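Mods, move this if it's the wrong board.
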Amino acid sequence: MKFEWEYDKWMQLQIEDEKNHRRRELLKKGLGHGTVELLRTIWFPTIGNFDYLYPEWEVRDFNNGFRYLDLAYMPGGAKGDIEVHGYKSHARDLDVSRFKDLCRRQSLLSLDDWIFLPIAYLSIRDEPELCKQLILSFVGKFISMDIPAQLSWLEAETVRLSRRLLRPFTPLELAAHLRITDRHARRILHELIDKQILIVSGGNLRFRTFQYKL
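Not the wrong board. Structure tokens:
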């Protein structure tokens, strides 16, 4: 229920604050199913709020027309774009003109300094944990997410590293990153496991890999 309440409040504010009639009318129609599912099952459980997030954000295209981004993420003037791609509309039934138009759209965003994050709807459904890690790393490119105050600076940097990586990492990788011994790295990792911040993702006792607990 919390998601529905926060989502409805967020959408209402988006509509009320929008002066552009084109975007306001789009917002009144509601967001697409894929976008809502991304917000419900991936974004909100991972980030916990909708701060700096703008659905159906309007941008200019090459012909001085308008395009709309599924979700623009813009903290402090930064420019991130999350696009939900359905298999039918973006792969199976994509004709030549639509394919070229999609490439032009992505080119426009890149040339205008947008960081582009496409997520397949099938991944939202079938690989939610991977999508959560993608979102966490995406947000981490723009803002420093809160770190528990009780952590030492080495523990805090370990948490930051685990949030940036899109895969499990080894104690040796952490040791190289922090410039400490392998033994010290293992001690830090096990302390963060005890604090329920990291989890063991694979391997035996000596060759384990670790990752951030979502």
